[in-house]
Write a structure and sequence with these properties.
This protein has a two-stranded antiparallel ribbon. The protein has helices at about 10-15, 20-35, 40-45, 50-60; strands at about 85, 90-95. The protein has one domain. Strand 1 and strand 2 (about 90-95) form a beta hairpin. Helices cover about 40% and strands about 5% of the residues. The radius of gyration is 14 Å and the shape is globular. By secondary structure, the protein is mostly helical.
Length: about 100
């Protein structure tokens, strides 16, 4: 039997040694059981906080080919109000550029 395909965020977090094999399995089991997105499970289980997840993404280490990333090199321009996590673990940035 082949290994299940890892969500890209989980794969990156595991690759960065932010979680171990047991924690990875725990997240995958919870995701299968509850249907929650893996990003929220990592936060709920106090494994990897949202700021760390967003920093990994902002550094461009988790970018799908062809995705519109804008200028992710300057991730300091993002704050938590700019970002929302959606079912399935997708993360969206608010590009409205409104006043802060």
């Amino acid at each position: 039997m082949s290994d299940p395909v890892l969500h890209p965020l989980l794969a990156l977090i595991k690759e960065q040694n932010l979680i171990d094999d047991l924690q990875l399995e725990e997240v995958m089991q919870e995701q299968a059981r509850s249907g929650k997105n893996c990003s929220q499970i990592l936060v709920d289980f106090e494994m990897v906080d949202m700021d760390t997840q967003l920093e990994l993404i902002a550094r461009g280490e988790l970018v799908r080919p062809g995705a519109d990333t804008g200028d992710l090199a300057d991730h300091s321009r993002f704050n938590r109000a700019d970002v929302s996590v959606h079912p399935g673990g997708s993360i969206r940035f608010d590009h409205s550029g409104g006043p802060r």
